[in-house]
Write a structure and sequence with these properties.
- The protein is an alpha+beta fold and about 200 residues long.
- It has 2 domains: about 20-100, Arc Repressor Mutant, subunit A (Orthogonal Bundle); about 110-185, no CATH class.
- About 50% of the residues lie in helices and about 10% in strands.
- The protein is built from 7 helices and 6 strands, in the order H-H-E-H-H-E-E-H-E-E-H-E-H.
- The protein has helices at about 20-35, 40-45, 55-60, 65-75, 100-125, 145-150, 165-185, and strands spanning about 50, 80-85, 95-100, 130-135, 140, 160-165.
- A hairpin with a 6-residue loop joins strand 4 and strand 5 (about 140).
- The longest helix has 27 residues, at about 100-125.
- The structure holds zinc ion.
- The site of zinc ion has 7 residues, from loops.
Protein backbone atom coordinates (compact mmCIF):
# COMPACT_ATOMS: atom_id res chain seq x y z
CA UNK A 1 0.00 0.00 0.00
CA UNK A 2 1.30 3.44 -0.78
CA UNK A 3 1.86 5.94 1.93
CA UNK A 4 1.70 9.69 2.00
CA UNK A 5 -0.39 12.01 -0.10
CA UNK A 6 -1.97 10.67 -3.21
CA UNK A 7 -0.39 12.30 -6.25
CA UNK A 8 -2.77 14.76 -7.78
CA UNK A 9 -3.98 13.84 -11.21
CA UNK A 10 -3.77 16.56 -13.76
CA UNK A 11 -7.06 16.00 -15.40
CA UNK A 12 -6.96 18.90 -17.76
CA UNK A 13 -4.81 18.24 -20.75
CA UNK A 14 -4.18 20.85 -23.42
CA UNK A 15 -5.84 18.61 -25.97
CA UNK A 16 -9.01 18.12 -23.91
CA UNK A 17 -11.94 19.08 -26.08
CA UNK A 18 -15.09 20.71 -24.84
CA UNK A 19 -17.82 18.11 -24.47
CA UNK A 20 -20.56 17.11 -26.90
CA UNK A 21 -23.68 19.11 -27.81
CA UNK A 22 -21.80 22.00 -29.44
CA UNK A 23 -24.92 23.97 -30.37
CA UNK A 24 -26.16 23.74 -26.81
CA UNK A 25 -22.80 25.04 -25.58
CA UNK A 26 -23.29 28.15 -27.70
CA UNK A 27 -26.59 28.83 -25.91
CA UNK A 28 -24.91 28.20 -22.58
CA UNK A 29 -22.08 30.58 -23.47
CA UNK A 30 -24.55 33.27 -24.44
CA UNK A 31 -26.49 32.82 -21.20
CA UNK A 32 -23.35 32.92 -19.04
CA UNK A 33 -21.97 36.00 -20.74
CA UNK A 34 -25.33 37.77 -20.32
CA UNK A 35 -25.83 36.79 -16.68
CA UNK A 36 -22.26 36.74 -15.34
CA UNK A 37 -20.30 38.55 -18.03
CA UNK A 38 -17.22 37.82 -20.08
CA UNK A 39 -15.25 36.79 -16.99
CA UNK A 40 -17.90 34.17 -16.26
CA UNK A 41 -17.44 32.86 -19.75
CA UNK A 42 -13.68 32.56 -19.47
CA UNK A 43 -14.04 30.72 -16.14
CA UNK A 44 -16.64 28.38 -17.66
CA UNK A 45 -14.32 27.61 -20.57
CA UNK A 46 -11.33 26.93 -18.38
CA UNK A 47 -13.29 24.51 -16.14
CA UNK A 48 -13.75 21.99 -18.96
CA UNK A 49 -13.33 18.37 -17.92
CA UNK A 50 -11.82 19.27 -14.57
CA UNK A 51 -9.67 22.11 -13.29
CA UNK A 52 -8.51 23.33 -9.89
CA UNK A 53 -8.82 26.97 -8.80
CA UNK A 54 -5.12 27.36 -9.57
CA UNK A 55 -5.43 26.01 -13.09
CA UNK A 56 -8.37 28.35 -13.68
CA UNK A 57 -6.35 31.24 -12.23
CA UNK A 58 -3.52 30.47 -14.62
CA UNK A 59 -5.70 30.28 -17.69
CA UNK A 60 -7.98 33.23 -16.93
CA UNK A 61 -5.55 35.58 -15.17
CA UNK A 62 -8.35 36.50 -12.76
CA UNK A 63 -8.00 36.83 -8.99
CA UNK A 64 -8.82 33.72 -6.93
CA UNK A 65 -11.59 35.53 -5.00
CA UNK A 66 -13.23 36.56 -8.24
CA UNK A 67 -12.88 33.05 -9.69
CA UNK A 68 -14.49 31.52 -6.58
CA UNK A 69 -17.39 33.94 -6.71
CA UNK A 70 -17.96 33.15 -10.39
CA UNK A 71 -17.70 29.40 -9.70
CA UNK A 72 -20.27 29.73 -6.92
CA UNK A 73 -22.52 31.58 -9.32
CA UNK A 74 -22.12 28.84 -11.96
CA UNK A 75 -22.67 26.22 -9.26
CA UNK A 76 -25.91 27.92 -8.17
CA UNK A 77 -27.25 27.37 -11.70
CA UNK A 78 -26.12 23.74 -11.46
CA UNK A 79 -23.70 24.19 -14.37
CA UNK A 80 -20.56 23.05 -12.53
CA UNK A 81 -19.73 20.47 -9.87
CA UNK A 82 -16.72 20.14 -7.65
CA UNK A 83 -14.84 17.46 -5.81
CA UNK A 84 -12.47 18.29 -2.99
CA UNK A 85 -9.36 16.59 -1.83
CA UNK A 86 -7.52 17.25 1.41
CA UNK A 87 -3.85 18.04 1.24
CA UNK A 88 -2.30 15.89 3.99
CA UNK A 89 0.63 18.27 4.48
CA UNK A 90 -1.15 21.57 5.09
CA UNK A 91 -4.70 20.32 5.70
CA UNK A 92 -6.12 22.54 2.96
CA UNK A 93 -8.66 21.39 0.47
CA UNK A 94 -8.10 21.43 -3.24
CA UNK A 95 -11.28 21.93 -5.23
CA UNK A 96 -11.52 20.46 -8.69
CA UNK A 97 -14.31 21.94 -10.79
CA UNK A 98 -15.99 20.23 -13.68
CA UNK A 99 -18.73 21.18 -16.12
CA UNK A 100 -21.88 19.12 -15.49
CA UNK A 101 -23.19 19.25 -19.03
CA UNK A 102 -26.32 17.15 -18.54
CA UNK A 103 -27.52 19.14 -15.57
CA UNK A 104 -26.49 22.41 -17.20
CA UNK A 105 -28.68 21.52 -20.17
CA UNK A 106 -31.65 20.56 -18.02
CA UNK A 107 -31.45 23.64 -15.80
CA UNK A 108 -30.79 26.01 -18.66
CA UNK A 109 -33.73 24.66 -20.67
CA UNK A 110 -35.98 24.87 -17.62
CA UNK A 111 -35.12 28.57 -17.23
CA UNK A 112 -35.78 29.14 -20.92
CA UNK A 113 -39.13 27.32 -20.75
CA UNK A 114 -40.17 29.63 -17.91
CA UNK A 115 -39.01 32.68 -19.84
CA UNK A 116 -41.00 31.51 -22.85
CA UNK A 117 -44.14 30.98 -20.73
CA UNK A 118 -43.85 34.48 -19.28
CA UNK A 119 -43.53 36.00 -22.75
CA UNK A 120 -46.52 34.01 -23.99
CA UNK A 121 -48.54 35.36 -21.07
CA UNK A 122 -47.51 38.93 -21.88
CA UNK A 123 -48.44 38.36 -25.49
CA UNK A 124 -51.85 36.92 -24.73
CA UNK A 125 -52.67 39.69 -22.23
CA UNK A 126 -51.55 42.52 -24.47
CA UNK A 127 -52.82 41.06 -27.72
CA UNK A 128 -56.47 40.88 -26.79
CA UNK A 129 -56.85 44.14 -24.93
CA UNK A 130 -56.00 47.73 -25.61
CA UNK A 131 -53.07 49.05 -23.62
CA UNK A 132 -53.15 52.52 -22.12
CA UNK A 133 -50.26 54.72 -21.24
CA UNK A 134 -49.51 58.40 -20.64
CA UNK A 135 -47.31 60.27 -23.10
CA UNK A 136 -44.32 59.89 -20.77
CA UNK A 137 -44.79 56.14 -20.63
CA UNK A 138 -44.71 55.93 -16.81
CA UNK A 139 -46.77 52.72 -16.71
CA UNK A 140 -48.98 50.54 -18.88
CA UNK A 141 -52.53 49.50 -18.09
CA UNK A 142 -55.15 47.35 -19.72
CA UNK A 143 -58.65 48.78 -20.02
CA UNK A 144 -60.05 48.00 -16.55
CA UNK A 145 -57.17 49.40 -14.49
CA UNK A 146 -57.05 52.43 -16.81
CA UNK A 147 -60.77 53.01 -16.21
CA UNK A 148 -60.23 52.65 -12.43
CA UNK A 149 -57.77 55.51 -12.72
CA UNK A 150 -60.24 57.55 -14.77
CA UNK A 151 -57.62 57.49 -17.53
CA UNK A 152 -55.12 59.55 -15.53
CA UNK A 153 -51.53 58.45 -14.95
CA UNK A 154 -50.72 57.72 -11.28
CA UNK A 155 -47.31 59.28 -11.59
CA UNK A 156 -47.50 62.31 -13.88
CA UNK A 157 -51.29 62.85 -13.87
CA UNK A 158 -51.38 63.17 -17.66
CA UNK A 159 -54.16 61.46 -19.61
CA UNK A 160 -53.89 57.79 -20.43
CA UNK A 161 -54.34 56.99 -24.11
CA UNK A 162 -54.62 53.72 -25.95
CA UNK A 163 -51.17 53.05 -27.36
CA UNK A 164 -50.03 51.17 -30.40
CA UNK A 165 -48.09 48.24 -28.98
CA UNK A 166 -47.90 46.29 -32.22
CA UNK A 167 -44.16 46.85 -32.64
CA UNK A 168 -43.46 45.67 -29.15
CA UNK A 169 -45.69 42.63 -29.53
CA UNK A 170 -43.88 41.83 -32.74
CA UNK A 171 -40.61 41.84 -30.79
CA UNK A 172 -42.12 39.53 -28.17
CA UNK A 173 -43.36 37.20 -30.93
CA UNK A 174 -39.92 37.04 -32.51
CA UNK A 175 -38.37 36.25 -29.16
CA UNK A 176 -40.92 33.53 -28.44
CA UNK A 177 -40.33 31.99 -31.88
CA UNK A 178 -36.57 31.89 -31.27
CA UNK A 179 -37.05 30.34 -27.84
CA UNK A 180 -39.50 27.77 -29.18
CA UNK A 181 -37.10 26.81 -31.94
CA UNK A 182 -34.27 26.34 -29.47
CA UNK A 183 -36.49 24.44 -27.01
CA UNK A 184 -37.83 22.10 -29.66
CA UNK A 185 -34.29 21.34 -30.84
CA UNK A 186 -33.61 20.09 -27.30
CA UNK A 187 -36.99 18.48 -26.69
CA UNK A 188 -35.34 15.20 -25.70
CA UNK A 189 -33.73 16.83 -22.65
CA UNK A 190 -35.93 16.15 -19.63
CA UNK A 191 -36.67 18.56 -16.80
CA UNK A 192 -34.42 18.46 -13.74
CA UNK A 193 -35.22 15.80 -11.20
CA UNK A 194 -36.39 17.08 -7.80
CA UNK A 195 -33.52 18.17 -5.62
CA UNK A 196 -31.20 19.03 -8.46
ZN1 LIG B 1 -47.31 59.27 -16.58
Amino acid sequence: MRRGPIPKKTRKSPTSKRPKAPDFLLHLDEFVSESIGEKGLSVLHSVGDGATDEIIEESTQLKIAEIRSILNHLHSYGFVDYTREKNMQNGWFTYTWKLNLDRAMRNFLMMKRKECDTLRETLSTEECSAIYSCRKGCSRFSFEPALDRRFKCDTCKNDLHAIDNRKELKRVEVKIAALEKMLSAHRDVSSPRPGE
